[in-house]
Amino acid sequence: MGARRSLTSTQLRADAEAELAGAPLSEAPPRPADELLHELQVLQIELEMQNESLRQAQIALEESRDRYADFYYFAPIGCLTLTADGLIEEINQAGAALLGEDRSKLIHTRFSRFVVSAEQDIWHRHFLHALRHDEKQSCELSLQRKDGMVFDARLDCLPTAAGGTAPTLRISLFDITESKQTMAEQRRLNRALRLLSECNIALVRAADEPTLLSAVCRLVVETGGYLMAWIGFAGHDAEKSVRPVAQSGYEDGYLESIRISWDETREIGRGPTGTAIRTGATQVNHNCLNNPKMAPWREAAIQRGYQSSIALPLNNKQGTRGALTLYAAEPDAFGAEEVALLEELVRNLEFGIQALRTRAKHEAAKAELRDSEERLRLAKKAAALGIYDWDIVSGRIVWDERVRELRGVGPEELITYADIIAGVHPDDRLAVQAAIDRALDPDGRGEYFAEYRIFSRADGKVRHIAAHGQAFFEGGCAVRLVGTVTDITAQKLLDKEIQERRAEMELLANQQVAAHTASAIAHELNQPLVSISAYSEAALRMLSDGTKSPEKLVHALQGAVEQAQRAGRTLHELLAFLHQSETTLEPIILNEAVQEALAIAAESGCGEFHSVVDLARDLPPVQANYLQVKKVLLNLLYNGIEAMRAAGVATAAITITVRTGTFAGGDMAQVTVQDSGPGLDAETAQRIFEPFFTTKPRGMGLGLAISRALIEAHGGQLWLDSESSSGAAFHFTLPFAA
Amino acid sequence: MTGTATVFVVDDDPAVRDSLSLLLEEEDFAVATFNSAEEFLTTFRPAPRCCAIVDMRMPGMDGMQLQGELSRRGILLPLIFLTGHGDIPLCKRAIMAGAFDFLTKPVTAAALMQSVREALLESEKLAAQAELTHTAKTRIGSLTERERQVMALAIEGLTNKEIARRLSISYRTVEIHRARIMYKTGVDNLIDLARIASEASRSHP
User: Fold this and answer.
1) How far is the first Cα of chain B from the last one, in angstroms, to the nearest whole number?
2) Among residues A20, A29, A109, A454, which one has the fewest Cβ atoms lying within 10 Å of its Cβ?
3) What Cα–Cα distance (Å) separates residue A449 from each residue in A445, A454, A487, A609?
């Protein structure tokens, strides 16, 4: 009712008056005694009312007290009251639970026993401080529960000064382990985020891989707040060792002293770093103290304060190649989100490494290209090489400055295939086109080689050119022809000069031989001629003077006849001697003589020619003198080559065929030498075997005569094929060895 | 030009020797033949008018070598070489070395006879010269040492007075030497004396 009414004395008096007015009062005018009584009655009522009010208040108070007590005891936060002596006077259930002890056992015990020894001083100072101040004083402490577990707690302390009694300290106790961890994690995450961002900047800025790796390690330590970081790459040695390439932070010879491998079969290959490299998965080492995988390195790690670590694999497209390993000064330093951030960092790092390597490769390739271009330029310059590149599909032809210089074509002028051919000497055009056709033949090897003459468009000068090239094919079609051209004019002139010198020398030698031979012949024939002449003139004189002695006339004429016959004999002997001297016949392999003669002719420098050889296989040996057969072959080859060169045949070719021919006298080996020259006219063909007959400006005209004589001395024949359709064809036969 | 002229034929070819002999004999030359240079050197007898027809090419000693040997022996004999047409350089050398002529085989009778006749004329000249030289040598050889000294100075054109001074003898003595020199050499003037002295200095006898 009026329990909560404010019990002021005026109100109370009014209430009491109202109570009394309701009661039967005497009619008599108030008398002093009546007044006193009334007063007393009012007082009594007042007292009763007061008492009632007090009782009400008492009840309310008790209800309230009970509620507060419940609230106190069952409050979710720990509450306790400490005496000025630091003893627990009161503690609620939550508080007891936090301390891990029954409430009853806590009362009158010393609170400080739950404070970790390292913080006893902090607590003591705070306790005294809080007792003296009327405001709430907070502190954070590490408390150790009864069961030994340590947790972080916040203590809000408020002293109570109850009159003269000793003050107490009421404390609210909060377990802030979780929030503290969350905060720490948040800090670390923030740090990790900043680290990530700074690493990305480093990635962008890094000029080369070592710089980048060092920068990342440094950032991990300086920005990331980790104790130490290093990057190791997987070595491919026998030990499969992990080779540190960058490091930062407090290390104190750690990497120097330890050995790490990524070989699964070894204990040092199963640590976090080795496993990360091997498996490509992040390895978190929560606590160096109790992680069995850390056994090989535990002592060294603990010595340096490494409590936990994480190994993050650095992967590339070809597989794992390394790891970034971080060490923290706390155990369990790596939360899931942090790991995720670090993994992202490592992925960025991988990308950075890849990019730098690509860039390095690119730079190296560029440098290499520059170098090789320079080398090529020098080589080109030294060799005076020109380069051409013909895109057959588009028809685009690229000539470098050297080719343009040789061809007398300006640097900007467009070139067509027709231009190429038009610049070639008319006599060489067919050969050049044939060589190009061969190169572009999809069934061939695509090799191109041609020697030809060109006209310079600028000055009309003729140059000899050697062109090499290679055709490229796509889908069975030639699409490109690339190659080089060399100016071989000087070489050609030199060759020509050498050849002329050689020809002169040969001519001189031949002339000397001929002179000696002629001299020998002259002497042998002159002797009888002198006699014949003298005998005849003597006879003439005898006859004109009138013969005094016929015997003398007969003698003179007989002498003349004898000498004439002697001259004939001498000639026969001489020819027989020339033909048969030094001739020893033996079985020889005709094909070998052909090959050797061809080789000599090709090297002789008397002219370029293309040889086609068709040799009968398993041809039996022939009975011949090897040197003389070779000489005959060379005579025929030289004749053919010189005839073709003199006629300016574009594609000089000589075909040599060796086969078995059937003749009246039996089988003979038959050799045919055919050139692609203009052949022989009727008159030449008729006289070709005459001694001293020649079509050459400086020939002796004995080659074919001697060749025929030599072959006939072997028992064979040498003749001109009158029915040859193209070029000149000579045949000769030799008997097989018995 | 008849009678005593002798032609030597040196050739390894008997037919050449025989036919040339026949031809030369038709022209009334005396002919002696030799089948080699060696035989010629050992057996030939010099004649007052003679020449030799020599084949340039012979086995053993050839024509050039024969010429060299004759020259070495101081035999003055005109040589006519017969050569093939290839031997021209050789013949040139022979001519330079003093051969009289060379003829290319086969030789015509006319050319041969002309050459032989000219060679014989040359032979006569050579003989005369040789005679002259011989005489001069003989005459100069009869002079005393002092007389030769006086002669040499006189030929140089010195006067008797100068000669006397040069040789530190009296003028009169020089005069006596000069008279004896003229007497011994058979000349009557200084020019002839100089000629004889020159002849006598020739190497060939």
Assistant:
1) 25
2) A29
3) 12, 15, 14, 14
Q: What's the burial of A469, exposed, middle or buried (CB within 10 Å: 0-12/13-18/19+)?
A: buried
Are A660 and A690 in contact by the 8 Å Cβ rule? The answer is no
Pairwise CA distance, residues A450 & A485, whole Å: 9
* Displacement of CA B164 from its chain's centroid (Å): 39
pLDDT tens-place string over residues A493-524: 888 888 888 777 777 766 766 665 676 677 66
Cα–Cα distance for residue pair B112/B124, rounded to 1 Å: 18
pLDDT of B204 higher than 60: no
- Is there a cis peptide before residue B106, judged by omega within 30 degrees of 0? yes
The verdict on a CB contact (< 8 Å) between A542 and B15 is no
Q: Return d(Cα A236, Cα A432) in angstroms, integer.
A: 56
Residue B33 has pLDDT above 90, yes or no: yes
**d(Cα B24, Cα B116) in Å, to the nearest integer?**
9
Task: Give the residue numbers in A contacting B (CB under 8 Å), as ranges.
Answer: 515, 518-519, 522-523, 526-535, 537-538, 541-542, 545, 552, 555-556, 559-560, 562-563, 566
Q: Do A527 and B16 touch (CB under 8 A)?
A: yes
What tokens were used for B184? 């011994």
Nearest to A431 by CA among A651, A684, A585: A651
Q: What is the pLDDT of residue A320?
A: 59
Neighbours of A571 (CB within 10 A): 14
Among A511, A512, A524, A531, most B C-beta atoms within 10 A, so best to mutate, is A531
* pTM, entire model: 0.35
Query: Where on the phi/psi map is residue B3: left (φ > 0), alpha (ψ -120 to 50), or beta?
Result: left
Tell me chain B's radius of gyration from C-alpha atoms.
23
CB contact under 8 A, B109 and A534: yes
Contacts of residue A284, Cβ cutoff 8 Å, sequence gap at least 6: A272, A308, A309, A310, A334, A339
Inter-chain CB proximity B19 and A531 less than 8 Å: yes
What is the per-residue pLDDT for A577? 54
β strands within A392-488, DSSP E? 397-399, 447-455, 462-474, 477-487
List alpha helices for chain B, DSSP H: 14-26, 37-43, 63-72, 88-96, 109-141, 145-155, 160-167, 171-185, 190-200
Q: Which two tokens stand for residue A204?
A: 């962008």
